[in-house]
Amino acid sequence: MGSLVTNLGLLINATLIATPPLLFAGLGSCFSERSGVVNIGIEGMMTIGAFTGAVAGLYTGNGWIAFLCGGLAGAILGLIHAIVCISFHADQTIAGTAINFLGSGLALFLCKALFDNSSDTPALDTTSKLPKIFEGVFPVGSFGSNVLNVYGVAYLVFVLAFVCWFVFYKTKFGSHLRAVGEHPEACESIGIDVYRVRYTCVILSGFMAGLGGAFVTLATINQFRPNVIVGQGFIAIAAVIFGKFTPHGTTWACLLFGLCSGIKTLASMSNTVSPNLISMIPYVVTIIALILFVGRANAPAANGKPFVKAR
Amino acid sequence: MKKKLMAVLLSTAMVFSMVACGGSDNSAETAAPADNSAATETEETADNSEIKIGLVTDVGGVNDGSFNQSAWEGLQRAQSDLGIEVNYLESKGDSDYTPNIEQFMDEEYDLIICVGYMLADATRAAAEANPDQKFAIIDDSSCSDLDNVSCLMFKQEQASYLVGYVAGLTTKTNKVGFVLGMENETMNQFGYGYCAGVKDANPDAEILQTNANSFADSATGKSSATAMITNGADVIFHAAGATGLGAIEACKENGVYAIGVDSDQSSIAPETVITSAMKRVDNAVYDAAKAITENAYSAGVVTYDLSMGGVDIAPTTDLLSDETIAAVNEVKEKILSGEVTVPADKASFEEKYGDIYTLDAE
Question: What is the CATH topology of the domain spanning A4-294?
Fold first, then answer.
């Protein structure tokens, strides 16, 4: 085992690999939940985003365009969820579950249709993936390489987290979205278009979940497989609740999950502790943090309740 | 209330990560119906169209990119070559094994192939209760005492030995890496073979090892491999499904070599993956199906090794030097002739190499 600095570098590196997909999806989920629409379809939206990102990377050869395509695919599922839940007042949990099936099923189906009945997409060239910053500046395996030579998006997502916080608390749209999640009737009475705010938020949450999925196929690895998204969407929703439905809280929660993944990696190198115990670290840490530090997480009052417009 | 929801979510996530190879659960409907009709159309082997062979997968499902998928591909090949009728049932959890097997029995299938050691108990129970029903099980030999179960075993340690030999000859830093997906008897055989191959090729080489404890966590695979590279490894072998994809990607990004598993994985990263340890589950399933059509079914253990084409090193050798290829072919001949025996368990491994494989349980 190397020095403390080396291990710190590895820890940060692992955190920057594990956190971004969760944070993209978690931040998106904040919008949806705070506007009053429960979205447990995040997992499905991430899966379709991961698939579309990989395919768009193959055909366009440009990582950024592919990344946005992944987001758009998630947004389309978000739109479906919005239509079903907002316009047709369906049960949001059931609709979200359906979105999960739709996302993973559709991704696999399209993959088999496009790529000769194969369940994984062909591998992407490095040039078709998202760009890394400081490529080749630091020697392989150095602290600088592990911490700084990572995918630019892994840092960008933290900027996005700040932007989300700004939108939530410093803009008119932000106060509208928080209000419609608490008391849509009151909002309607003062002329806020509840449907429009909710539609925007749910589509946005699909878009960002799609980005999170696309990060996996365009940065973490270089192809789509049906099992690249397993559970990240649910972890993201947990992070939102953990973070008390705020963008900054969610950011800390996602970082904690990401950090635990890094600890897991370092801990499994020495091989003195049972791997099954190590695998429990993220979940045990969450439960402890939840009990000791977080306290009650208050969901928005109107979350999950369909809103029917007055005539 | 919210804490309750949180608990449910966390446990869902945990379950998801544990049924590692999952994620393709909802695919059964898309593929299954199409397959039933095709068999009857094959003309020259029309006499086999009465024969029905069913495949019960473990929780991985037929799109796991690993041995379930390979098994189903073998059966599909048997369908087109032999004109038999084939079908599969995916298991969503441990409780599905018995119902899936019973469904095939009710429909009077001639052979039921159970994929993976996780189905061993269900297979044993069904085989004991129905002595006239023929079974085959992959990667398990615990049912070998029954005369209606054919146990299809693989010498994955032989393929792992060969890729370990390549790694030992290729490394310049004298450090190689191994990322394991899960610790159990079958998976450890990859480790024993690999470590033995590395040490025989290069006694000075050190083997860095990590158990990612998941077949579907590409982020952990990537960070584990990054940690190995940081500590000096320049060739990394994975036996970890989708987790290993992350390991291969880390090798690619850092300009070191990777070794694939199960199938020839060089297409994932042509400049990075120097070779792969191949396990031909498809060949074993095909042979089992063929035996049924020829009335040559036999119970007991059938071990697919190097000589039977059950395991092998990948055909792609573009990144290997001629000397390495020659040396590996030489050691392959030695395994085939019995001059070199590859250890497949803890006792025989440690007798020769010492306790250098650290991932096996005490």
Answer: ABC transporter involved in vitamin B12 uptake, BtuC (1.10.3470)
